[in-house]
Design the sequence.
């Protein structure tokens, strides 16, 4: 699939996160383009949830960069992520049937 624009919506570069005795993320790279759906998959313990929590502002990375529309941002809280249009939606969350897709067109939804 060819992208019409080279501008990335969201990009992570060299993201690393360490917990006591565990290197959860080691120089992770990911790029998401507008109108693209991206799946992050892997075995248990691969760091998927850690990466999503970093993007959602629940955790902060130990190293690396997060870029939104090719501009570096610091996501140091859930409130900051929300202001940037990034929402972390937990898999077990339930939603009202009245939510309309057009309300989230300019948001990055992480589920």
Sequence:
């Amino acid at each position: 699939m060819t992208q019409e624009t080279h501008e990335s919506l969201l990009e992570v570069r060299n993201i690393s996160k360490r917990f006591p005795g565990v290197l959860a993320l080691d120089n992770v790279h990911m790029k998401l383009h507008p109108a693209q759906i991206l799946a992050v998959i892997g075995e248990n313990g691969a760091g998927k949830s850690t990466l999503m929590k970093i993007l959602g502002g629940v955790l902060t990375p130990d190293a690396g960069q997060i870029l939104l529309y090719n501009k570096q941002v610091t996501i140091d809280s859930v409130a900051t992520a929300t202001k940037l249009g990034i929402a972390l939606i937990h898999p077990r969350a339930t939603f009202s049937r009245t939510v309309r897709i057009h309300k989230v067109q300019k948001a990055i939804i992480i589920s």
In short: The longest strand covers residues 22-32. The domain at 10-110 is CATH 3.40.50.300 (Rossmann fold).
